[in-house]
Structures are given as structure tokens and as C-alpha cells.
Amino acid sequence: MLDISHLTLTTRLGGVKVDLLRDVSLKLERGKVLGLVGESGAGKSMIGRVIAGHVPAGFEVSAGRVVFDGTDLSTLDAAARRRLLGRRIAFVPQEPLTALNPVLTIAQTFEEHLAHLDVPARERQRLMLAQLASVHLPDPAELAARFPHQLSGGQCQRVLIAMAFVANPTLIVADEPTTALDVVSQATVLQLLAEQRRIHQTAMLLITHDLRLAAHVCDEIAVLYAGEQIECGPAREVLGRSRHHYTWALDHATPDVHGPQRRLPVLSGQMPGVAALGAIAGCRFEGRCPQRQAACGERPPALLEQTPGHWVRCIAPRQPAHDQVAAAQAGDEDWKTPAGDAAAPPLVELQNATLRYTARRGLLGRRKVHNVAVNQVSLKVRPGEFIGIVGESGSGKSSIARLIVGAERLTSGRLLIEGQERSDQRTLRLTREHVQMIFQDPHSALNPRRSVFRLLTQAYESDRLADRLKQHPRDVRASQLQSDVGLPQDALARFPSQLSGGQKQRVNIGRALCVMPKLVVADEIVSGLDVSVQAQVLNLLIELGRRHGIALVLISHDLSVVRYLCSRVMVMQSGNVIEEGDPETVFTHPRHPYTRRLLASVPPADPSAVWPPRSLQ
User: Where are the beta strands (DSSP E) in 362-496?
Assistant: First the structure.
């Protein structure tokens, strides 16, 4: 149904020909799911853009064909392609809130889409409500009258799924459809995609950086690296018996919710950019491969069939027996997270903390509506302790973070900083000096016009912190921070646009450490990172905690990350703490049904396990 044969996408840099995609061949049958897996920059989304005909300016398909249902897509004119897209080929994008027009209601957006599909005006309302109901959205008529910002991320993603399937397409291209969602919403959205696919007998191309998720959802997997297809085959075979060193590294860089604790292995270096690809004569993974040989740099390796249907591009592929030995050795390693000083007085203490928002509804805003974000929560954070707070979107996790750093005021209860009331002026200064926050998105958190040197040492520009920092010259402190967070030697002169995603997050962390805080509050700091970069950041946080005795409050929806990083976990639902304890106990023997639901939503490491469970529907 979809046949991509020897696809090569080329550009020119300084007169030099560079293949962004090189010799990619994929086949997808009707009703099946093919997963494209790899880190950012691997070329996954670019394949989707080639299918859609949205190749960036300066790039061209220099070799190969993309055939859909017998039609070579490269031969279609613009009008024919527009007739195809949205009807027989539909797309589910990565960011649901940015994909929906913020000034249009859901009904207006759906109306525009149905008009594009030439659905008669009298049929559009009925068809829209039927589609919204088919993806299990409550009260479709009321929801259709809302704007995107009035819906959760999971609800927006369901709207996009309903729009994608309304024309009964032959192919769905889903580009990271669950990356921005919490674990329960992720599992629910994937169930909906599977359900709709079965109803319509639609094939799906799933683009994701999560190898384990792909192994449970897809029939076949193709792993991409730097524009090349380096391993492909049956999904469970590729995850359970991976033969390429990169595929194995992707899997083992992901922490486990269950099983023995182990230090996450980290891939050295980073994926080569477009400019670097032109200078690579041999294997594009050679610079990061722990088993590279002299021959690897001489010429590109061929894609060879190792077992029936399982293909690998490597001159010395891994053996599954070696994988099992390496995994066992990694699991035996004594890996402990910072537990802090249990006898020390708490740095921060919340006592029956409540945060309530008040909004006005109805005619002229006469009716008040109260929304409780945090309800009677008590929390103590001791020096050097790593605490994780988990739950779905809207559970109150980030509200706790904003209370601790002083971005929100308590409606009732008490907040103590080193034993002092938060409202006290001395405590306000203590908060600024000793409590720092690391934000979720490093791209928007860093000023693009500032160098890394100025970003890392931004605290020196604050009059309130001048006395505290004057004993350390600014350039000396910048070098210390650069070393602490593992940035390259030449990074201080760079700007954010010249850094990778992982390097930006390291700058974000270094900036928070500049004032030598006692407590760091981190809000979803690894949720948008590739798994190899995530492993680097998690290991870095543990090293910094051990070296400097810093306490950490981690806000996350990823239970595997919390288990790896934290010595205590709080599970929140609708503003309430419903379970608390050490991660081993809570995750191994959960008592609350909601905690069990969260754990069931995490893709298991075993590819033969049934996931996602039907109980989440």
C-alpha cells in the first residue's frame, strides 16, 4: 500500500552535496502499523514530509520513489496532492495545541476541515458530533463550542484523531502523537488510534522516539540514525533481540519502572548535523559506536538480513546473547539515589497547603466558580533529598512547584522555608537565594540573544544576589558551572541556537546552580528529550546531588524517571496526595487504584507483554 524504495533526499551546503536521507526503503501493508524510531535529527519527520510533499526549500528527492496505492507521489501536481491529503492520507501532528487554531472553536475548525472534504453543509454538524463521540469525548456538542485552550492536551489530541479519521483514510501518518501527554493520556490516545484503525482498516506510520512504545503498538519497526535506516524488522524482534548497537543503546537508556536498579548507560557524543554528514564517508554511527572498527569509516555498510525479516546496517552486529549478559551486568550494579539527611530539619515544609483559583462565569461574570488545584497537602523536603511528584495533567503537581518557589500564594495552610513563614521578608530573600527552578522547555526558557556565559551567570546581574556571589568572580563561576554540567569547552561563547536540546537543558540546570541553591524544583525537565539525552541529564542530576548536597523536587508524569532519580514519591490526583512512600514500595505494591492505573499506563520493557491494557479505556 505504501512502498518507499531507495529514497534519498539531498541538499547542497557550500557546493557540497549532502544526503539528509540516504537509501531508505520501507513497506507498509493495508491495516498494519509501521514505526519509525530514532532521536531528533534521525530523519523520521522528514519522511512524513516527503509523503505529504512538504519538503523544505533547498532539498530535493534525488533518488528513489514513494509509491502510495500504485501512485508515485513525486509525479503528482499540487492540485492532485491536495485532493489526496486529508482524504486518503491523513496526519495526526505532535503538538495538539499548536495544530488547532486558537481563535476558532472546535466546531469551527471541524467545519473548515469538512468543507475541505466537500461534505455537504447540512451533514457537517451530524458527522462532527458522531466523530467526536467515536473517540470517547464526553458531551460532544458542549465540547465543540469550546476553544482549544479550554481543553486538556489529551482532549485536543482526540479531536485531531477524530478529524483524521473522518474521511476514512487509507493511511494515517502520526508524528509523535503522544510526546506531550501524560502516561494515562498517552495510553488512551494509542488505544483510540488502534480502535479507529481497526474500524476503518487504515494503515498507520507511527513516528516516535520511544522504542518500547513502538514495540507494543507496531507490527514492524524501522530504526533511523542520521537519515539512514540502520535496523528494521518485526517489532518484538527489534526490541527483544536488537542487533544494532544504536538500537540496543536506545532501549537501555530508558529507566525501568520495575526490575533491578542500574545506572543508565549513556551514548557519547551526539547525532551529526546536516553540515557534518557530507564529511562522513563510512558508517554515520561510527563516531558514537563503542564497537567501531577501522573498516567502519571507509564506506557505508550495507543493510543485510540477519534472520528472516530482520535487517541490520552494521559490519559487526550485536549478538542477542551478548545483549542479555550486558543487561544482567547493568542490572547488578549498585545504583542508589540521594536519600538526604533524615535527621536534619526540613528546607521546605508545606502544612495543609491549599491553593484555590476563583473564576467568574455566566452573564456579566456574576457566578463564581472555585477550582481547587492543591487540597490540604503536607510535604517536607530535607537537605539532599530527591522527591518525585507524579500524576496526570491537572493533578496539581506544577501547582506545588509554584507554591514552593513563591509564584503562587497559599489560599490556606502554611509554607515554611528553613523554619520561617514564607510571607516573612527574610524568608522571601531565603527563597530567592536557596530555592531555584528548572523549567520544562529549555528552548523557551533561554533568551536566544544571550550567550551561554551570560545565561549561566545571569544571577550576577541581580542586586539582591550581588553580595552572595561577589566572592566568586563571574568568569571563574562560569567555568565551574560549565564543568559541573558537562558542557563542551567552547560552549560559553555560543548562543542557544548553536546548542543541542540536551546542551540547552544543561545550561538551564547550570543557571539554577549558579547561586549554589539548597533546593532545586524541576518541572518535567526531561519530558521532551531523546532517551539518550534524558539519560545524560538524569545521571548529571544525581552526580550534582551527591557532590553538592542539593535537594530536588521533581515534577513528572514519567514514573520510570521518578523511580530512577528519587528516594521518595508522592502520587497526586485532583489536587490530593493519594499515595506516598519510597518508589520501590509504591511502584511494586501500589495500594490506591489510581496508582495502579498510572503504572499500567507505562509501556513495559518486555515486548511480549500486553499493552496498553483495555482497563484504561
Answer: 367-381, 386-390, 412-417, 420-421, 435-438
pLDDT digits (tens, 9 = 90+) for 151-199: 888 889 889 999 999 999 999 999 988 876 788 888 888 888 888 888 8
The CATH number that applies at residue 33 is 3.40.50.300
Dist. CA 156–CA 150, nearest whole Å:
9
Task: Tell me: pLDDT of 331 over 50.
Answer: no
Give the domain extent around 42. Answer: 2-88+167-241
Name the residue among 422, 430, 347 with its Cα closest to residue 383. 347
Q: Is 52 helix (H, G, I), strand (E, B) or coil?
A: helix
| C-beta atoms surrounding 30 within 10 Å | 12
Residues 6+ apart with CB under 8 A from 499: 452, 491, 507
Q: Which run of H or E residues covers position 492? A: none
At 328, is the pLDDT very low, low, confident or very high (cuts 50, 70, 90)?
very low
Amino acid at 16: V
Residue 403 corresponds to which cell in the numbers above? 507554591
436 touches 489 (CB < 8 A): no
Give the cell for residue 98: 499548536
Judge whether 301 lies within some domain: no
Q: For the range 286-290, what are the long-range contacts, defined as Cβ-Cβ under 8 Å and sequence gap of 24 or more?
A: 288/246, 289/245, 289/246, 290/245
* Positive or negative: CA dihedral 573, 574, 575, 578: negative
Q: How would DSSP label each residue in 500-534?
A: -HHHHHHHHHHHHHTT--SEEEEESTTTTS-HHHH
506-531: string of b/e by CB count within 10 Å (b at 16+)?
bbbbbbbbbbebbbbbbbbbbbbbbb
> What is the chain's length?
617
Last residue of a domain, one of 214, 241, 268: 241
CA distance 401 to 519: 12
Q: Which amino acid is at 446?
A: L
Model confidence, pTM: 0.86
| Sheet architecture: strand order including 60-68 | 16-28, 2-13, 60-68, 71-72
Residue 237 sits in the same domain as residue 369? no
Peptide bond into 612 cis (omega under 30): yes
d(CA 154, CA 177): 10
In a domain, 333, yes or no: no
CB 526 within 8 A of CB 554: no
Query: Across-strand partners of 244?
Result: none
